[in-house]
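Quick one, T. Sequence first:
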Amino acid sequence: MVWSTTTAVEEFLAEAGEFLRAEPARNSVILTVAENLRVKAAPAAPASAGASPGDDRTLLGWWRPSADPDLVGGAFLHTPRFPIFLTAMSRQAAAELAAEQASSGRLVLGVNAEQESAAAFTAAWQQRTGDDARLHRRMRLFRLAELLPPGRWPEGSARLAAKRDRDLLIAWFDAFAREVDDLAGQDHAAAVDERLSYGGVMVWQAGATPVAIAGVTRAVAGMVRVGPVYTPPELRGRGYGGAATAAVSQAARDVGAEEVVLYTDLANPTSNALYQRLGYRPVEDRVVLSYQPARAPARHHDGP
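Structure tokens:
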């Protein structure tokens, strides 16, 4: 088996794009992160170059079996300070990737993958580093079937977020990250500016007051991913979050998205039930494991 890595997104998409686009829902995270990198056109390393241990660039990679070098059978994405994100792949591919990354000296704070791949990667990583591993989150990917609007719409209406909402959005993106323990040194101002640049946040507004938001990624391979969805604690229980989610989901369908997906934390029964009432159906489960040196305090997190 052969892993290839690069920090050049165009090279990565040329090699692994067909594999990723074959299942855009399951590969949503890698596709959307790669699309953002492509749009930003950030300076990239030379083709086929890996990142050095202290490099803060996103590392991308794909695996080809040595017996069939024309076939891509797995891919990964690693943004520093976030867990390494794996597509579906064999246990052997996951284990070999862990061994390669550990040998390179790259700092990996955890893994986000399907259960078997996560277990294989973690076992190989621990064998080489001695790190402890703990469960950080169990996640479920949902895909929209037929959109089922709320039986009773709450007060207010939906609108796209605008520049005047920037400060509020930054505060709410930060509050969402803190609430879900996703604290990997994110630049929420940059994230908000990115979303505003393509109409990526829907606001539910009651009177003149924004009461909830639902974000959406750039469209890629006919797919978009909803998130974050956030309602301030004092405004919850009134249907605002569900209304914002329904509105952004319909807007995505209206502009041609063939697949609309989102992730939930399986520890949150409220959100899991809400999205299913809106017409979202389960696709797959993933696990996020956090690594830390033995006997050291926990450090990180969760997805890009």
